[in-house]
Amino acid sequence: MKALAMILAASAATLAAAAADPKQKQDLTSVIALNGKPCGEVVSYVVQGDNDFLATCKDKNRYRVYVKDGRVVVDKK
Questions:
Q1: What domain range includes position 59?
Q2: pLDDT higher for 59 or 12?
Q3: DSSP assignment of the chain
Q4: Domain tally, the chain
């Protein structure tokens, strides 16, 4: 029973993340563009921590987008 509850909780978390995914991709695309970096569109990303993402763009560029000292930083990877 405990294992089933854990599986259901993990499934719910996955579905919630998938539902938020398009908005997060759009936000990352905007942040990258506002920092003058070429991207086009973010096609995937990995959450590395709080306010820390590794975004992969349609044109194959990859960027780390994170907050440092209250500012958004975009570093090419």
A1: 21-76
A2: 59
A3: -HHHHHHHHHHHHHHHHHHHHHHHHHHHHHHHHHTT---S-EEEEEEEETTEEEEEETTS-EEEEEEETTEEEEEE-
A4: 1
